[in-house]
């Protein structure tokens, strides 16, 4: 599948929330100059000379509905800068199957909705492709086990875009946590997405929840850097706004002074406003994860995110709003920016390039694939160099357990019985403890 001139051909399925800003722009950068320039951000610059001549090419992009025109827009967007390398726009309910058959890519990048990750990954592996997928890997442990087994069977890489582990602020704190703070007693992590995500951007919000969608980032950071294993899960959640969106969107519009008929979705959205999860780990540490996707548009940052460690000798916190970059602009209010995620640079030649941990995570997966395909390194040798599918199993198990526990506790609470449900986790499964 790989061409003799050391080219890695990539096909992309799904538009993804950050396609234009991060995913697509990262691949434009890689097409223009390879991945060597991005390796410093993942601590792999010593490999830059070895992979400097490897070319990255996007050959196709696919989305489900031709009516939306998303794939065509993306293909045109690439064509503007790379007319000599046409990107085919494809459509269909299982568009990845057509792309794999027609283009035989080396890599399938999966940016489909949360609940539509597993099948494209499995089909790509069966066809001999390596995979980079948006987070979370999938939504059930059974799917995760299938993916992990298939990757091992086919000797292929599945890399997950867990970019928070490459955030330089988070990495600095987490990689030195035990040395600085001693035994960690508790982690508190918050990641809150804007209301437009659940009401406008994602038509599939009912198929997921805010903990699965963004809580997985902090789970990955904690599990990866602290090397802990989850053993118990407690979860609750709230359904006050989105499940009554048909009533409340008018009030939200009124408060903003806009016409409620302009809202993309005006019917009830049967999903959680927020989910709060407490995880107990094998060393006794507790992790508290708080996630929502109803943060007001007027909030000062694109998202609200912070992580805090409490150790026996000290504590540390990374808060995005405290990184020091603030603006106050007429008509836009006071805002905080996070160029560490996706900073943008216009070079003298006019080309736009991005930097930051959003791009770094994709580079980590691509580098592992290049090392496997072109340098002959084994999966075992590469295991700690990128977010592997196997590293995500515990994360998926917590997501699955939290979804079940939160739903059962919501039912108990509505019936006046409190929130008595928890879950025990083991390598063999999830045990729901319910009175």
Describe the structure.
The chain is an alpha/beta fold. It has 2 domains: 7-164 and 342-388, NAD(P)-binding Rossmann-like Domain (Rossmann fold); 167-336, Dihydrodipicolinate Reductase, domain 2 (2-Layer Sandwich), CATH 3.30.360.10. It contains 15 helices and 18 strands. It has helices at residues 19-33, 48-51, 70-81, 95-103, 118-126, 141-154, 168-175, 177-181, 195-201, 210-226, 245-256, 339-342, 357-373, 379-382, 393-414; strands at residues 7-13, 55-63, 88-91, 107-110, 130-134, 158-161, 184-194, 230-238, 274-281, 286-295, 304-311, 315-319, 326-329, 333-336, 343-346, 352-355, 422-426, 429-433. The strands form 4 sheets. Strands 12-11-7-10-9-8-17-18 form an 8-stranded mixed sheet. Strands 3-2-1-4-5-6 form a 6-stranded parallel sheet, sandwiched between helices. It is globular, with a radius of gyration of 22 Å. The termini are far apart. The mean pLDDT is 95.
Compact overview of the structure:
With 435 residues, this protein is an alpha/beta fold. Helices cover 37% and strands 25% of the residues. Helix 6 (141-154) runs antiparallel to helix 15 (393-414) and helix 10 crosses helix 15 (393-414).
How does the overall form come out from the CA principal axes? globular
Pairing-aware structural class of the strands and helices?
alpha/beta
The total of beta strands comes to 18
Distance between the termini: 55 Å
Oligomer class? single chain
The CATH class designation of the largest domain is Alpha Beta
List descriptors.
18 strands; alpha/beta; 15 helices; 435 residues; Rossmann fold; single chain; Dihydrodipicolinate Reductase, domain 2; six-stranded parallel β-sheet; 2 domains
């Amino acid at each position: 599948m790989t061409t003799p001139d050391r080219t890695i051909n990539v096909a992309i399925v799904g538009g993804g929330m950050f396609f234009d800003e991060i995913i697509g722009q990262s691949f434009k950068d890689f097409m223009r100059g390879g991945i060597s320039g991005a390796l410093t951000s993942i601590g792999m610059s010593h490999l830059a000379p070895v992979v400097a001549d490897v070319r990255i090419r996007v050959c196709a992009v696919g989305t489900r509905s031709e009516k939306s025109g998303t794939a065509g827009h993306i293909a045109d967007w690439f064509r503007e800068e790379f007319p000599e390398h046409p990107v085919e726009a494809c459509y269909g309910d299982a568009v990845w199957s057509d792309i794999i058959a027609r283009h035989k890519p080396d890599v399938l990048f999966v940016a489909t909705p949360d609940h539509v990750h597993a099948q494209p990954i499995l089909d790509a592996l069966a066809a001999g492709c390596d995979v980079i997928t948006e987070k979370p890997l999938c939504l059930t442990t059974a799917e995760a086990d299938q993916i992990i087994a298939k990757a091992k069977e086919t000797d292929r890489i599945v890399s997950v875009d867990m970019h928070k582990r490459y955030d330089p602020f988070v990495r600095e704190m987490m990689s030195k946590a035990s040395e600085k703070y001693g035994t960690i007693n508790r982690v508190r992590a918050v990641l809150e997405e804007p209301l437009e995500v659940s009401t406008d951007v994602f038509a599939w919000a009912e198929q997921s929840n805010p903990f699965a969608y963004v809580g997985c980032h902090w789970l990955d950071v904690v599990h990866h850097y602290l090397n802990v294993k989850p053993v118990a899960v407690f979860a609750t959640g709230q359904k006050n706004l989105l499940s009554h969106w048909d009533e409340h969107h008018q009030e939200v519009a009124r408060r903003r002074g806009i016409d409620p008929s302009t809202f993309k979705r005006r019917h009830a959205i049967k999903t959680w406003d927020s989910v709060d999860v407490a995880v107990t780990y094998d060393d006794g540490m507790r992790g508290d994860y708080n996630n929502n996707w109803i943060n007001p548009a007027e909030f000062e940052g694109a998202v609200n995110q912070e992580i805090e460690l409490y150790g026996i000798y000290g504590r540390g916190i990374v808060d995005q709003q405290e990184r020091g970059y603030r603006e106050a602009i007429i008509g836009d209010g006071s805002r905080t920016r996070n160029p560490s995620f996706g900073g943008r640079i216009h070079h003298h030649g006019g080309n736009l390039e991005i930097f930051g941990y959003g791009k770094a995570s994709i580079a980590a997966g691509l580098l592992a694939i290049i090392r496997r395909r072109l340098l002959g390194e084994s999966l075992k040798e590469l295991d700690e160099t990128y977010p592997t599918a196997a590293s995500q199993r515990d994360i998926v198990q917590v997501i699955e357990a939290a979804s079940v526990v939160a739903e059962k506790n919501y039912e108990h609470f509505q019936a006046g019985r409190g929130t008595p449900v928890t879950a025990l986790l083991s390598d063999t499964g999830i045990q729901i403890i319910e009175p």
